[in-house]
């Protein structure tokens, strides 16, 4: 468990992450903010990371808004950002359209201003009706999308239009809780047509690669809150990934994660960019140890060692030890009893 790309485990970084990686590919919802509200320590962590030489690109599955709007929101939350530091799923969807369509073809856009602008700037004619005979339907999330727009998408797809979704996130975090995401709206169209769309958003690594190319980075770190999109995209694209426990996926989800969704690092919040990260080591007695924490799997049951000072470092180390023990057991063919995995690290803060 020492090399980030040689296996599907946690890795160690004996220097702060800002010193190992020159670019952070940072998710937005659940990482930098929740709805219109800031997330604790997001500004502290990102501003300090930038001050210490790490470049930032905000990579989001949200396709509803223009990069300028996203940058303005971040700046208003004390995270100064320029539009060229924002990469949206709308831009990725527009690039995916180029793989099949010629410039000047018609595209029915179901979504917000960000998607409409991206499709138009890619050289396509944006239409709103299936009767315009579009070659493709580009679908992204926007709060105003309703039955009428979904019906037009279904009509066009039934007539042969190519269905492209900006992302397939079933939910999105808001200040009030989790709300239906674009994947839920896409599901309604898929249920009506029987057609599975192609998707440009995470977990496809397309946006990550676009962002790295734009920045000219040497070593990029993906930072996200969702295992099934952010961290899965990191694994599939060959990038190292940091899971911050401020959004959708929990520490317990980390322990139960499938190999293709496992993070390389786990942190409480974005201050995790500013510190080194320990990796568990396997002892001869079968326990995995990380700092003062330990864990093992016996007959498919996860056991956590007793002891530790109960502080935030111990709680994070307990998550890391539990991940290492569970992942190693699963990779060795053991069926892990999910009911033996407790909720972990609730309310932890970065060290």
Gist of the model:
By secondary structure, the protein is an alpha/beta fold. The protein is built from eleven helices and 19 strands.
Mind sketching the topology for me?
Layout: H1 17-20, E1 23-26, E2 33-34, E3 37-38, H2 42-51, E4 55-60, H3 67-76, E5 86-88, H4 89-98, E6 106-110, H5 113-121, E7 125-127, E8 136-139, H6 147-158, E9 162-165, E10 171-174, E11 177-180, H7 182-193, E12 198-199, H8 206-215, E13 220-224, H9 227-237, E14 240-244, H10 251-255, E15 265-267, E16 281-282, E17 288-290, E18 293-298, E19 301-304, H11 312-331
Parallel strand pairs: 1-4, 1-13, 4-5, 6-7, 6-8, 8-9, 9-12, 13-14, 14-15
Antiparallel strand pairs: 2-3, 10-11, 16-17, 17-18, 18-19
Features:
351 residues; alpha/beta; Rossmann fold; 3 domains; 6-stranded parallel β-sheet; 5-stranded parallel β-sheet; 11 helices; 20% strand; disordered N terminus
Please provide a written account of the structure:
It holds the Pfam family Hydrolase_6. This is HAD-IIA family hydrolase. Keywords: Hydrolase. The protein has helices spanning 17-20, 42-51, 67-76, 89-98, 113-121, 147-158, 182-193, 206-215, 227-237, 251-255, 312-331, and strands spanning 23-26, 33-34, 37-38, 55-60, 86-88, 106-110, 125-127, 136-139, 162-165, 171-174, 177-180, 198-199, 220-224, 240-244, 265-267, 281-282, 288-290, 293-298, 301-304. The protein has eleven helices and 19 strands. The longest helix has 20 residues, at 312-331. The two termini are 22 Å apart. With 351 residues, the chain is α/β, with parallel strands linked by helices. It has three domains: 17-88 and 203-274, 3-Layer(aba) Sandwich (Rossmann fold), CATH 3.40.50.1000; 90-199, 3-Layer(aba) Sandwich (Rossmann fold), CATH 3.40.50.1000; 281-340, no CATH class. Helices cover 32% and strands 20% of the residues. Helix 4 (89-98) packs parallel to helix 5 (113-121) and helix 6 (147-158) packs across helix 7 (182-193).
């Amino acid at each position: 468990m020492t090399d980030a790309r040689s296996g599907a485990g946690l890795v160690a970084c004996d220097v702060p992450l800002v010193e190992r990686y020159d670019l952070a590919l940072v998710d937005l919802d659940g990482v930098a903010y929740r709805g219109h509200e800031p997330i604790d320590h997001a500004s502290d962590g990102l501003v300090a990371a930038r001050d210490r030489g790490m470049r930032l690109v905000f990579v989001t599955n949200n396709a509803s808004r223009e990069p300028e709007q996203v940058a303005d929101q971040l700046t208003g939350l004390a995270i100064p950002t320029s539009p060229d530091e924002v990469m949206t799923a709308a831009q990725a969807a527009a690039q995916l359209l180029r793989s099949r369509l010629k410039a000047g073809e018609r595209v029915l856009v179901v979504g917000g201003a960000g998607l409409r602008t991206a499709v138009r700037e890619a050289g396509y004619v944006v239409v709103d009706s299936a009767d315009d005979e579009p070659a493709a339907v580009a679908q992204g999330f926007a709060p105003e999308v309703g039955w009428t727009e979904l019906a037009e998408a279904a009509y066009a797809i039934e007539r042969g239009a190519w269905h492209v979704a900006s992302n397939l996130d079933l939910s999105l975090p808001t200040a009030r809780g989790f709300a239906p995401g674009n994947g839920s709206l896409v599901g309604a169209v898929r249920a009506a047509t029987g057609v599975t769309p192609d998707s440009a958003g995470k977990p496809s690594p397309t946006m990550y690669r676009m962002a790295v190319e734009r920045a000219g980075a040497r070593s990029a770190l993906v930072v996200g809150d969702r295992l099934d999109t952010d961290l899965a995209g990191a694994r599939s694209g060959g990038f190292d990934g940091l899971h911050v426990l401020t959004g959708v996926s929990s520490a317990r989800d980390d322990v139960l994660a499938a190999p293709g969704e496992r993070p390389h690092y786990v942190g409480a919040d974005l201050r995790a960019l500013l510190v080194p990260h320990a990796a568990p080591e396997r002892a001869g007695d079968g326990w995995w140890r990380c700092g003062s924490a330990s864990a093992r799997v016996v007959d498919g049951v996860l056991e956590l060692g007793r002891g530790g000072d109960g502080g935030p470092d111990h709680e994070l180390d307990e998550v890391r030890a539990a991940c290492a023990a569970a992942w190693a057991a699963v990779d060795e063919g053991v069926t892990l009893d999910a009911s033996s995995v407790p909720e972990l690290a609730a309310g932890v803060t970065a060290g």
